[in-house]
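Hey, I was hoping to borrow your eyes for a little while. A protein chain has come my way and I'm curious about its shape. Take your time with it, there's no hurry, and the full record follows here:
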Amino acid sequence: MAVQVQHREATPAVRKPPRHLHSTSAYLALKERIVSNQLPGGSRFLEEQLAADLGISRTPLREALLNLQADGLVRLTPRRGVQIVPLTADDIIEIYSVLEALEDLAVRLIGERTDNAADLAGLSSDVQAMQDALRDDDLDAWAIADERFHGRLVTASGNGRLSRAAETLLTQSQRFRLFTLRLRPKPVKSTRNHAALVKALKDGDVAHAREIHTGQKVGWREDMIALLKRFKITQI
């Protein structure tokens, strides 16, 4: 595991949607490789390498890279190519602290909506997918369902600014969740808490839903800090 600590990134700019089909596919392909840690933090590549690997020209690749840079996932440096931005231990703690607040607000907003039935049904479906994945001992499927749950949670808030603020942080947090997926116990407790959160929202008990969410996040943050120390993870 890497031990070099990098300087923190400035707040990323607002990402613009890719204009070309090749840019979109390149963006999604590279994003998946970064989030899944196939392209580890700190690694460097020439644009020519990436273009050849993806089978596209430099122009759509450049547009995809600019969008990934806006997401805070890569850093473009003249004459030095593309660097995958590493996440330091401090970055990880900051990301989860902000996400905790944003998701708490999302839970409150969902509970205040009178037209939330379809979103709650979707969240229930995500929880069921997590439960099925645990039953099948399929951690990869669990991670996909968990990512979908958290994305749906902030979107269901009905607050577009909240969703956009959370989008980049959720992507970055997914890098850490996937990196540690098999370093920590099976996420049985997390799945149970997700189910309890949805049930509380369906019952109209917003205060209890927020208590469940806060307890889940506080426990997760403590476990995460212990994990970072145990495996001496300073960056990914």
